[in-house]
Amino acid sequence: MVKAVVLGAAGGIGQPLALLLKANPLVTELGLFDIVNTPGVAADLSHISTPAKVEGYLPPDDGLKKALTGADIVVIPAGVPRKPGMTRDDLFKINAGIVKDLATGIATTAPKAFVLVISNPVNSTVPIVAEVFKKHNVYDPKRLFGVTTLDVVRASTFVSEILGNLSLSKEVVVPVVGGHSGVTIVPLLSQSSHPLPAGIATSDYEALVKRIQFGGDEVVKAKQGAGSATLSMAFAGAEFAGKVIRAVKGEKGITAPTFVSLASDPAGAAALTKELGQELEFFSSTVELGTEGVVKIHPLGTITDAEKALVKAAIPELETNIKTGTNYVAEAYKKAEEDGPSRL
Ligand SMILES: NC(=O)c1ccc[n+]([C@@H]2O[C@H](COP(=O)([O-])OP(=O)(O)OC[C@H]3O[C@@H](n4cnc5c(N)ncnc54)[C@H](O)[C@@H]3O)[C@@H](O)[C@H]2O)c1
Ligand SMILES: O=C(O)C[C@H](O)C(=O)O
């Protein structure tokens, strides 16, 4: 039995993600929560002939609590998307509060659930969830993931395009490490399961790296103000959620790059920290998944000088993003204490 819950389920990502989770035969219950439209989305999905029982909830009458009760895995795509000219950090002001409130709901109702954060800026929203869970004394770093799978999906697609064979894209595996925004997105193309053409021009390699790092901008620009990636994100989110579910059900050897706390595997973190040359609280690296979540954080391994430079360039922004999330929760709790009795 697996209950999956989507928070933000009526949105551009939420709806197709809920569809793909409904199509996953391992999901037996699907809880959908949003501030609008979930009863309609749930009624629609409930007619699909797969095992999951679907329920939609809204905020009145404790909808969040009802959606989360009994949750095994919670995926969060709630929040505002970018418009042209915005960075993911520009979303922080609105999305930080949304994610903090939803994390409070999870901490109080489903503290053992695996939590997959899609809401941007991921480099900051994941630390927000961690800090809220710490405040509620329910933090298990092995169970919290920032979803960076879209970067991996893009890398597979763009590499297979360069290799002239899109049908390869399902098989092409490129570790993408670091974080999920601009220069913090670091594709390790030297470790691609399918090497780039021998003698690829430096300018072509650099253009590919840039396209993977800024693939989100391509979609934001093409949507002309109507939002950011939704369908490709739903595909990526369902892919990652599917891996977590399979691992939790006991399948061995499942790995994926994902943005995790380095406290989730201190031994793996020690090796990674040595490679990075400094400590970071969160980092996206290839992670082995198991029944309790993170089993092992893999090191970067052998990488080229160009990739070392990309990793180095990612670190300052990652550090700032992580601090932004952590400080936000500290300040919110401090303010709540000063203001007196609160709902935190
Ligand atoms: N991690 C990634 O790779 C990745 C990829 C694409 C988009 N995103 C991010 O995902 C988020 C959602 O994008 P979208 O295109 O689906 O946006 P959207 O506006 O289409 O949908 C967001 C949904 O969240 C809901 N929502 C708002 N406040 C809520 C709350 N307090 N509780 C529950 N639901 C709430 C809205 O009602 C809406 O239905 C954005 O922050 C976007 O930047 C992340
Ligand atoms: O680009 C965005 O804002 C959405 C998402 O993070 C993406 O990578 O497509």
From TrEMBL:
Domain Lactate/malate dehydrogenase C-terminal: 148-327
Domain Lactate/malate dehydrogenase N-terminal residue range list: 3-146
Name of the top EC class for this enzyme: oxidoreductase
Assigned keywords, A-Z: NAD, Oxidoreductase, Tricarboxylic acid cycle
Source organism superkingdom: Eukaryota
InterPro entries on file: L-lactate/malate_DH (IPR001557), Lactate/malate_DH_C (IPR022383), Lactate/malate_DH_N (IPR001236), Lactate_DH/Glyco_Ohase_4_C (IPR015955), Malate_DH_AS (IPR001252), Malate_DH_type1 (IPR010097), NAD(P)-bd_dom_sf (IPR036291)
Catalytic activity: (S)-malate + NAD(+) = oxaloacetate + NADH + H(+)
Example of a GO MF term: L-malate dehydrogenase (NAD+) activity
Assigned EC number: 1.1.1.37
Coiled-coil spans in chain: none
Entry binding sites for substrate: 82, 88, 120, 154
Family (UniProt): Belongs to the LDH/MDH superfamily. MDH type 1 family.
Assembly and oligomerization: Homodimer.
Family matches, as PANTHER family: MALATE AND LACTATE DEHYDROGENASE (PTHR11540), MALATE DEHYDROGENASE, MITOCHONDRIAL (PTHR11540:SF16)
Identification of the protein by name: Malate dehydrogenase
Organism: Tricholomella constricta
